[in-house]
Backbone:
């Protein structure tokens, strides 16, 4: 059960919620403690204000004046203190009971309505009297005994504060805690459902259903993972389709000459076809077709392993391409296709000349085949520091890129075929084995380069090979 990612998420979120609620409980205790300490400090400050007031009264009147002292005692009662004042001989001068009794009846009722003190009943204060000496000019002038009896609203205010703290805590525990539990379930589901979808889709693909996709609209990391998964699944589906087409193409290419050979041999065996030079030449041509297919597959295998067989050297591109042009120019003339070459005399390429020649010949052969009479095929060469398609090799000091483009005004390639023209045995039109462009791609990438194609159907194509080249010093 605990192996489920959903359960792990719930446990994690609940743990975070419990920690948060525990922090709220701890915070509530700290607040109440600080409130009580503040209240006690405020009570202590009050008695010192009473002491200061009584000492000021003594100094102002150069002795004890009962009438004025009575006002200080009444004021002390109004801030929650019962007070007894004594002179330096220990004789009581004034106390709260005497001060209240001396008030007019209306004032007495008002004072008793504010405080818990009553002349008829002793206050039930929990605190005992504390003694505070009185000084003037460093000389003791008497003392007061004071105890805090509070005001009628004090317990209520304190109780209200604590009640509200408890209410906040209950809301946090039950309200926010319950909300946290609900959100834990919701978000754990939201987090794990996309992963579950990805798992189901991956399982479907592993079982052979390559059309499985996941629909996740989020743009977070899981959304990016889903996007990458869908791209991978699409590529796998395309590759599977290409593999099926590859098997079909190979079977077709092998079946045609074998069927012809078998039919002629059966005719010869049955005596229906004469065994003469003409028939033997026909069989020889069919075996030649089989040999061509096998050689094409061997060339593809060699191209794939060409990275281990590269023999690089400095190639002067202008004479190198002129040599290829001279070899193929008659073919172009016979078909009525113009053949052009544009190359700077100073451009050199550090690569395997045989492999580069194979790339150019493959591309020229395709261009000639696709271009009808009156058309044109042009080879253009330029240097490039920032090719449109990044090569496998990284540029740097002593490195630049040679771009060799073969442009034709031929039939072009259909848009739906463009993504697959470099795939093995993929043929967009009849004729050939469909490996020439694959070989060109393998050799180019063996040099650390890239090959790209741009084409418009019925208007022509441009194949561009980018090969990184190194200076002699590198």
Residues:
């Amino acid at each position: 059960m605990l192996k489920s990612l959903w359960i792990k998420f719930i446990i994690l979120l609940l743990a975070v919620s419990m920690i948060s609620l525990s922090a709220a409980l701890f915070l509530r205790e700290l607040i109440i403690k600080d409130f009580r300490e503040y209240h006690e400090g405020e009570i202590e400050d009050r008695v010192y204000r009473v002491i200061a007031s009584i000492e000021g009264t003594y100094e102002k009147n150069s002795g004890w004046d009962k009438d004025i002292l009575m006002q200080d005692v009444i004021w002390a009662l109004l801030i929650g203190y019962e007070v007894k004042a004594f002179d330096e001989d220990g004789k009581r001068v004034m106390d709260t009971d005497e001060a209240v009794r001396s008030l007019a009846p209306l004032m007495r009722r008002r004072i008793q309505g504010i405080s818990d003190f009553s002349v008829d009943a002793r206050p039930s204060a929990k605190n005992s009297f504390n003694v505070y000496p009185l000084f003037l000019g460093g000389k003791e002038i008497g003392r007061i005994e004071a105890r805090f009896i509070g005001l009628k609203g004090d317990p209520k205010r304190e109780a209200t504060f604590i009640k509200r703290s408890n209410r906040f805590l209950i809301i946090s525990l039950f309200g926010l805690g319950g909300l946290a539990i609900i959100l834990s379930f919701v978000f754990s589901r939201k987090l794990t459902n996309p992963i579950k979808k990805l798992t189901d889709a991956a399982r479907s693909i592993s079982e052979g259903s390559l059309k499985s996709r996941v629909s996740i609209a989020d743009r977070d990391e899981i959304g990016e993972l889903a996007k990458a998964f869908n791209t991978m699944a699409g590529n796998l589906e395309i590759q599977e389709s290409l593999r099926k087409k590859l098997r079909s193409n190979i079977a077709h290419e092998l079946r045609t000459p074998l069927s012809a050979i078998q039919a002629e041999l059966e005719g010869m065996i049955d005596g229906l076809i004469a065994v003469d030079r003409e028939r033997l030449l026909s069989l020889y041509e069919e075996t030649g077709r089989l040999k061509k297919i096998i050689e094409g597959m061997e060339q593809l295998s060699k191209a794939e392993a060409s990275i281990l067989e590269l023999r690089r050297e400095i190639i002067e591109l202008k004479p190198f391409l002129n040599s290829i042009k001279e070899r193929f120019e008659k073919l172009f003339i016979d078909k009525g296709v113009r053949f052009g070459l544009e190359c700077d005399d100073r451009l050199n390429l550090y690569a395997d000349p045989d492999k580069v020649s194979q790339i150019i010949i493959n591309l020229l052969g395709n261009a000639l085949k696709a271009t009808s009479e009156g058309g044109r095929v042009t080879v253009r060469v330029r240097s490039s520091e920032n090719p449109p398609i990044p090569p496998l090799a990284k540029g740097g000091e002593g490195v630049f890129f040679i771009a060799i483009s073969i442009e034709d005004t031929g039939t072009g390639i259909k848009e739906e075929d463009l993504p697959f023209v470099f795939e093995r045995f993929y043929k967009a039109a009849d004729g050939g084995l469909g490996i020439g462009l694959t070989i060109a791609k393998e050799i180019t990438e063996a040099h650390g380069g890239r090959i790209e194609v741009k084409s418009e159907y019925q208007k022509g194509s441009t194949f561009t090979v980018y090969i990184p080249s190194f200076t002699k010093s590198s």
